[in-house]
# Entry
Amino acid sequence: MEIYLIRHGESFQTSSEYFCEEKQTMNPPLTQKGIEQAHKLADRLKDIKFDKIYASDLDRAVQTADILKSYVNSDIFINKQFREIDMGEIYKKSWNDFPELYSKWILHEEDMPYPNGESGADVWYRCKQQINEIVNLNYKRIAIVCHGGTIRSIICGILNIPQHRRFYFGMPPKNCSVSIVIYKEKDSILHTFNDYTHITK
# Structure
């Protein structure tokens, strides 16, 4: 099965006005640029047949998935398990408030959680449950529209790479980039990572 991992389009900068109390996370919508990026993404993928599009339940991912759907005519399944990594207290404070923790976290020598938030393993645990259900449906190709941190955790999980190594893939996934995993019961393959050539045209 081919899994297209798609990061949402550009969204407004996180700030207190975009913190969603109900979901306990930042939930900004797409900017106009983000909407344009999503259309470029969708135009690139318009000739690809997806059995289903999955999306995080955060607004920026849902908006991106809706635009993709309008080009590829596939059903969307919204699932909160594909949310961005929970950054805990960083949402309302900053790393400056946790200097000792940050000095260890920035080394990326272990899979440390954000303060009162998630680790990479936590993200993979919740995503894995949904991916296992998808695999059992015997789809040929799906898209998951989600978030940069989530994409890196999913890739590490599927390829059985330690989660702290997710920071060694290079630059974080760009907005509306495409990463493709060829999922197999054994020996899955990372086919493409962070392809955003369609955004730069």
